[in-house]
Write a structure and sequence with these properties.
It is a single chain. By secondary structure, this protein is mostly helical. The chain is 75% helix and 0% strand. The protein has helices spanning 2-8, 13-32, 37-47, 51-63, 68-79, 81-99, 105-135, 140-150, 153-169, 171-190, 234-238, 241-261, 264-270, 275-300, 305-324, 330-344, 347-358, 363-392, 396-415.
Length: 424
């Protein structure tokens, strides 16, 4: 009955999985991924910690996606996305309830890193990427872009509310509220997640099956540059030069982003705006990035993805260079928001490229090893920025360093090519 209703509406059920997955992820993302910059100064002030100490904790949290990648990939392959969402939501929500009672910065670090961040990684990041990869074949890039756009809507609204809650209710009470919201909203909704289209008698993209059981995409292909991928085994994919070029290019992009985004609100303050304006500008950045997910996802389905990623990284290079030049005023923040939103909006296309080049079979594990390879840089870069600020009181040199790194990412994406079939 349920499936027939969706057939009558001509809407592929996979898009409902995109919407549901995006909503549950957005609740967790508000607190853990998108909202963490609003915690930097309050945590520093609450515990009397240094900028370097707080930077180390949050940079470890951002980098932890790497070490947990292979484990998360194995767990998702074994138990499916829905089961991992239950586990991750319980860990993340429960961790925030405990976090409000942390007696010092190091107890805070243990709970935040050992429970909340691990739960977020194994329960949201990898399961949701796998869910989309399971449901979509031809439309993988657009599905991932729509997912990221949708899961950015709630943080745009809630991140300012989190900042207000910290100011009015205090840090501990805000952590408790976040934990209750995750447990009461995400856990019930996880029951409605369907791991694969086959579990509902459907196929990827909703395409009709041919006589050999393979979805027929001939009538639904829109003439874009999309090419059906070769299914690579893990070892075979990792032996191709393309995989390691993609790893390197992704590393440049993620390391540059991790270094600056952890400190983005203090950096905005350093160019002459108030903390309140900086928080609003950060919310605007989230909103602009949400729009850019769709724009760049659309471009990625119509032009070679490596060229789209190269151009996005050029925009990112310009955004960092603008901050590094030392200009002051709100206009600097607004121009940065536009330029960096283009760069950050390329993230779904980055992962869609991995799926397009190497297929569905080993996507989760290949992504896990990409994240693992990024771990040292994503860990150390934000800590270096915080350490430099503690010693020198400015962000100038780190901004120039990561401007160069972003530029290297643009060059690396530009030289990347699809692996040749005979490389298998």
């Amino acid at each position: 009955m349920l499936i027939s209703k969706f057939k009558l509406s001509n809407m592929f059920f996979g898009w409902w999985m995109v919407g549901l997955g995006a909503f549950v992820t957005s609740i967790n993302k508000t607190a853990v991924n998108k909202g963490f910059p609003v915690f930097i100064l309050p945590v520093e002030q609450f515990f009397g910690a240094t900028r370097a100490e707080v930077s180390l904790i949050f940079s470890l949290a951002r980098a932890e996606n790497g070490p947990t990648g292979p484990l998360a990939g194995w767990l998702v392959d074994k138990y499916g996305p829905r089961a991992l969402v239950f586990v991750g939501a319980a860990m993340s929500g429960g961790g925030f309830l405990i976090l409000g009672y942390s007696p010092n910065i190091w107890a805070f670090a243990i709970v935040y890193l050992g429970i909340i961040t691990v739960g977020s990684n194994i329960g949201f990041s990898y399961p949701m990427a796998t869910l989309l990869n399971n449901w979509f074949y031809r439309q993988k890039s657009m599905a991932m872009s729509v997912f990221h756009a949708l899961d950015s809507i709630v943080p745009v609204v809630l991140v300012p509310l989190v900042a207000v809650s910290i100011a009015v209710l205090g840090l501990s009470s805000t952590f408790t509220i976040i934990g209750l919201v995750i447990l009461c909203v995400v856990l019930p909704l996880a029951f409605f997640i369907k791991d694969t289209p086959e579990s509902m008698g459907l196929t990827m993209d909703g395409d009709p099956e041919t006589s050999d059981g393979i979805p027929d995409t001939s009538d639904s292909h829109d003439g874009s540059v999309w090419i059906p991928p070769v299914e690579y085994e893990l070892k075979t994919a990792m032996l191709t030069p393309t995989y390691w070029i993609l790893v390197l290019a992704t590393a440049f992009r993620l390391i540059a982003k991790a270094a600056i985004m952890l400190h983005i609100i203090p950096i905005f303050v350093s160019v002459g705006v108030s903390q309140q304006i900086a928080v609003l500008a950060f919310s605007l950045l989230l909103f602009m990035t949400m729009l850019m997910y769709i724009v760049i996802g659309w471009l990625g389905d119509r032009f070679p993805k490596n060229w789209v990623l190269m151009m996005a990284s050029i925009f990112g290079t310009g955004s960092f260079a603008l901050l590094a030049m030392g200009f002051q005023g709100i206009w600097v923040v607004l121009v940065f928001v536009f330029l960096f939103s283009v760069a950050d909006g390329s993230a779904p296309t980055n992962w869609a490229t991995l799926g397009e080049y190497f297929g569905r079979k080993t996507f989760t594990r290949l992504r896990g090893f990409v994240q693992l390879a990024n771990f040292p840089g994503v860990l150390l870069a934000p800590f270096f920025v915080g350490w430099w600020f503690d010693i020198h009181g400015n962000y100038t040199l780190p901004l120039w360093i990561f401007t160069i790194i972003f530029a290297l990412g643009a060059v690396t994406f530009g030289i990347m090519r699809r692996p040749l079939p005979n490389s298998e």
